[in-house]
Design a protein that fits this description.
By secondary structure, the protein is an alpha+beta fold. It folds into two domains: 6-79, Beta Barrel (OB fold (Dihydrolipoamide Acetyltransferase, E2P)), CATH 2.40.50.140; 82-240, de novo design (two linked rop proteins) (Up-down Bundle). It has helices spanning 88-104, 111-127, 132-146, 184-195, 208-226, 233-240, and strands at residues 6-18, 22-29, 33-39, 58-66, 69-79, 161-164, 171-172, 180-183.
């Protein structure tokens, strides 16, 4: 039995073919978490819902729940983040963000923070696709913070390097086997990602050395916390080109 239509604002994380002319889209919302919505006839000529076939956009949607499915009635784009689609690197990072959120946001209690972070991440990638590496590092660490897998680190004046565990919160000024060596500048960037307002998290500029350092660290840390293989999408793309 069909229920009354519901209105939601959400980010399209994924869009895949379903049957001949339909698509199933995965949408991240602030209040309902992850929703899967069937968009009927999206591949038809002049479909009013063709916008739903393009990922990474922020949309207002009216959805008809029916049985085990949600069907899109109508909708509109609030922010297309179209700049993402013009950069292979930005698309790779946006795909990584979508995958992480799709795998980690199971409850509505943490969906609000994830939704807000994703809004800013996709917007930053759309406006500044050349900053894909910095956005990748910032997203990785902030989502780990928001989900309770990481914390702000204590630092010491004059310390040049630290040694951090990618499995727990251990940090040491001394070299220890199994700990990741990270610079004081890298640690400062991580603490900024962890403690700033969501609107500011993607404003940091990192040089190439810091980008490489934080890409490796945040990828390894995230993989150990989530307990499944996570590959750096930028590195994978570089290996293909």
């Amino acid at each position: 039995m069909a229920s009354d239509p519901i209105s939601v604002r959400g980010l399209i994380l994924r869009s895949r073919e379903f049957k001949e002319k339909d698509r199933m889209v995965t949408v991240l919302t602030a209040d309902r978490g992850i929703m899967t919505i069937c968009v009927k006839g999206v591949s038809s000529k002049n479909s009013k819902n063709a916008f739903a076939s393009v990922p990474f956009s922020l949309c207002d949607l009216v959805v008809n729940p029916s049985g085990n499915f949600n069907y899109l009635k109508e909708g509109s784009i609030i922010e297309s983040n179209a700049g993402i689609m013009g950069s292979l690197e930005a698309m790779a990072v946006a795909g990584h963000i979508s995958n992480i959120l799709n795998e980690s946001i199971f409850q509505t209690e943490n969906s609000h923070l994830a939704y807000e972070l994703c809004v800013y991440a996709f917007y930053a990638l759309g406006k500044f696709p050349e900053r894909y590496a910095e956005i990748y590092c910032a997203f990785n660490w902030r989502i780990l913070i928001d989900l309770g897998f990481a914390s702000v680190y204590e630092t010491e004046d004059g310390q040049m390097y630290y040694y951090i565990s990618t499995e727990d919160s251990r940090i040491s000024p001394y070299s220890q086997q199994g700990l990741f060596k990270i610079s004081a500048a890298g640690l400062k960037a991580l603490n900024f990602f962890a403690s700033c307002r969501p609107a500011e998290v993607f404003n940091v500029t990192l040089n190439e050395v810091l980008q490489d350092e934080l890409r490796r660290f945040t990828t390894q840390y995230m993989q150990n916390q989530f307990e499944y293989e996570i590959k750096d999408p930028i590195k994978r793309l570089e290996n293909l080109i």
